[in-house]
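Retry 2 of 3 after timeout on previous attempt. Resubmitting structure tokens to design endpoint.
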């Protein structure tokens, strides 16, 4: 049984295949945290793990007891104001102005399977036997409010999903001013914090810093999970590497404003928390109402950062992503954006599709510019009807013509935004996020539609559903190019304005849910000016996302390496684009561009009609190679080997291994050439030590242990004897 309860000592022991999570009911009825880490054997009492003594200069909860202080105790879901002086996981503002609460244990339930979260994306179990859930109910009698803490153990996947639900059973209103999804107290602070930070076109770069006393946090207040920070952090021991050592990861299945923080107290206890950002947040909970927090997914690994990542990859690829496309190999696509931008007409689009089909491309995607009077980014968002100046035959006929070629057809939308120069804005200027009598900021010449209003979501659903019903469309790129400003809504009264940002995200989720349910054959790809909303919440609806607007092969090494810390290769849209690169102006070979993009959902974003015959032949071979290996790439085990974030950072390598360990593909990349470099070796990972492998293009064969422990000289395996700047090589292994 993955969840055990010791009735005599009131302890819960949650077990996965490799980990243990132990918590207990404290003497005051609140919940304490005993242990999280490598799996422990179960015993009838873990009281020996919990011991406190009287300490000076603190406050205690019970008169006459100088020992029991929440200031000294590791807790499960802590509150503020009753002897714990650290930041709390939640705070409830009551009608009398008090924020003091006393939520104590009321009961618990253990059951097979996992419940859905109301209105929110979350991990799931297809069969009850895959997961076991513990629900612990806490109750504050004074205010008649209940908290339900939910823990789902994915035993074979070595992950624990947590969330919290508040229910107001009382007659009085209360306000949740803080409602985080999870908290974890670790016994010391000898950790380094790993975060994924960046900006537009340089998303999810790995940053590492040593924990120090006080608060250290990452957060978003931009209305999305953001390019600046990702809703994930890890705590690793200083000696932990990619493949060895302890690491704790936490990932939030949410796409809006978030907070992830670690507080180190005066006794070096590290308190890790994650959830909706309390900044500018409040939720009015009326009598009989509930509030559900997003889900946080915890992973502990004793096999380093890569071990943690592989757990997230398996869980998110198979039990977060859903639908027809979850387990299917993704089509090789071409997107017209960098080939034409807004400047195209029907004949040009069809020519691009014809030429792409001849090269082996399976899916043609028409990007921005097909609707309204969209010749630049100043107009027409919200008017999702084809521009007959550019497409006189209409979207339906164009899509039919392209599918008649034997290709799939995809289309770009940006449903959450509106241009002032649009029929939609002229009809409904009140449908945008704004505050009356205040200036409206703009970004990319557009405003944000108020998705906290159901009628706005209904309207966009109607427009998109009509296009998807009328035309043979099998792919949708859903973009979102602007952060929120002037976050206000005419829909909601003054005391609910700080709910708008969260209600907006719930509106986005509801539109996704309706469209994915009605059009299950459509592959949705999420996008937000590139990777500004690349998070687990999006992955629930769209099994792949546009990783970054930066398509430069060298910059993508860092972006894709960092993204792989949490997200599987199948979720990363990765394209070969033209050179000089449109974002950084760099010129890299067509080979290196493909060698980087292979490790994701592969495609092209350039004008194939302008390619030379030699380049077209090269593209044909690239597409053939990817089709032969995409199941391996999209569903295999991923290993990071050399990091672009290392002190030198000149080399990057990674590889993917099939589940049966019979084949593997390793990518190696060098940024700058070096004179007289010597005999560099590459070391493989994840192979079967007993298997004998052949490397494509190399005469010898090698046992798995030789490849992993002794390695292979690079000069034996790559074509270039003296590789130039921005060079790369692929090593394809097959069991003999």
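Retry 2 succeeded. Sequence:
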């Amino acid at each position: 049984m993955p969840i055990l309860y010791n009735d005599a000592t009131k302890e819960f022991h949650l077990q996965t295949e490799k980990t243990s999570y132990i918590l207990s009911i404290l003497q005051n009825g609140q919940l304490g945290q005993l242990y999280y880490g490598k799996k422990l054997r179960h015993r009838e009492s873990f009281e020996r793990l919990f011991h406190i003594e009287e300490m000076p200069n603190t406050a205690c909860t019970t008169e006459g007891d100088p020992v029991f202080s929440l200031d000294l105790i590791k807790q499960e879901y802590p509150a503020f104001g009753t002897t714990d002086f650290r930041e709390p996981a939640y705070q409830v503002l009551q009608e009398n102005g008090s924020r003091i609460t006393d939520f104590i244990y009321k009961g618990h339930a253990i059951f097979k399977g996992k419940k859905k979260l109301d209105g929110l994306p979350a991990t799931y179990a297809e069969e009850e036997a895959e997961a076991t859930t513990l629900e612990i109910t806490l109750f504050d009698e004074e205010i008649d409010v209940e908290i339900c803490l939910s823990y789902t153990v994915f035993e074979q996947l070595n992950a624990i999903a947590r969330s919290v639900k508040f229910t107001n059973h009382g007659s009085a209103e209360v306000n949740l001013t803080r409602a985080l999804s999870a908290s974890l107290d670790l016994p010391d602070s000898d950790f380094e914090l790993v975060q994924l930070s960046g900006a537009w076109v340089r998303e999810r770069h790995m940053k590492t810093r040593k924990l120090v006393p006080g608060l250290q946090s990452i957060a978003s207040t931009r209305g999305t999970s953001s390019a600046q920070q990702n809703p994930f952090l890890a705590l690793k021991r200083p000696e932990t590497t990619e493949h060895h050592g302890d690491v704790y990861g936490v990932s939030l299945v949410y796409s809006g404003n978030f907070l992830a923080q670690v507080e180190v107290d005066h006794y070096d206890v590290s308190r890790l928390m994650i959830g909706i950002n309390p900044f500018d947040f409040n939720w009015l909970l009326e009598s009989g109402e509930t509030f559900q927090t997003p889900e946080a997914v915890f992973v502990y690994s004793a096999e380093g950062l890569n071990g943690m990542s592989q757990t997230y990859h398996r869980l998110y690829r198979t039990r977060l992503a859903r639908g027809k496309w979850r387990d299917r190999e993704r089509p090789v696509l071409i997107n017209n954006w960098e080939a034409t931008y807004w400047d195209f007409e029907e004949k040009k689009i069809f020519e691009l599709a014809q030429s792409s089909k001849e090269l082996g491309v399976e899916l043609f995607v028409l990007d921005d510019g097909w609707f309204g009077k969209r010749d630049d980014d100043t107009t027409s968002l919200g008017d999702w009807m084809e521009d007959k100046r550019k497409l006189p035959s209409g979207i339906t006929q164009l899509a039919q013509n392209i599918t008649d070629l034997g290709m799939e057809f995809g289309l770009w939308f940006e449903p959450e935004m509106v241009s002032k120069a649009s029929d939609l804005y002229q009809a409904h200027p009140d449908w945008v996020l704004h505050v009356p009598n205040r200036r409206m900021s703009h970004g990319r010449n557009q405003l944000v539609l108020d998705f906290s209003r159901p009628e706005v979501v209904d309207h966009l659903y109607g427009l998109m559903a009509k296009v998807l019903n009328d035309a043979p469309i099998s792919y949708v790129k859903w973009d979102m190019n602007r952060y929120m400003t002037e976050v206000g809504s005419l829909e909601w009264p003054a005391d609910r304005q700080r709910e708008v940002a969260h209600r907006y995200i719930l509106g986005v989720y509801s539109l996704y849910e309706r469209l994915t349910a009605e059009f299950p054959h459509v592959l949705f790809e999420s996008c937000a000016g590139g990777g500004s909303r690349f998070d687990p919440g999006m992955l629930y609806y769209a099994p792949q996302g546009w990783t970054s607007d930066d398509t430069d092969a060298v910059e993508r090494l860092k972006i894709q390496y960092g993204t792989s810390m949490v997200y599987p290769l199948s979720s990363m849209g990765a394209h070969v684009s033209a050179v000089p690169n449109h974002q950084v102006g760099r010129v890299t070979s067509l080979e290196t561009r493909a060698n980087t993009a292979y490790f994701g959902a592969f495609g092209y974003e350039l004008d194939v009609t302008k390619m030379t015959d030699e380049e077209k032949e090269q593209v044909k071979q690239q597409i053939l190679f990817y089709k032969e290996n995409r199941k391996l790439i999209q569903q295999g085990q991923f290993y990071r080997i050399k990091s672009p974030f290392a002190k030198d950072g000149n080399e990057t390598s990674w590889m993917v291994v099939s589940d049966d360990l019979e084949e593997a593909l390793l990518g190696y990349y060098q940024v700058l050439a070096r004179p007289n470099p010597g005999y560099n070796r590459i070391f493989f990972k994840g192979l079967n030590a007993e298997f004998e492998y052949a490397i494509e293009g190399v005469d010898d064969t090698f046992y798995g242990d030789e490849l992993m422990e002794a390695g292979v000289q690079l000069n034996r395996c790559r074509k270039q004897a003296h590789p130039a700047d921005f060079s790369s090589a692929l090593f394809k292994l097959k069991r003999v």
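Attempt log closed. The chain has a mean pLDDT of 96.
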